[in-house]
Amino acid sequence: MWGSAKWSNKKRRGTKINFLDSYLSEFMWR
């Protein structure tokens, strides 16, 4: 899971990653 996220982050640092990060953060900190 994290490996994929890092790979995606390296490939295209943009909205998708930001959205994913925000989603994960909110989900984890809820």
From TrEMBL:
It comes from Aphis craccivora (Cowpea aphid). This is DDE Tnp IS1595 domain-containing protein.
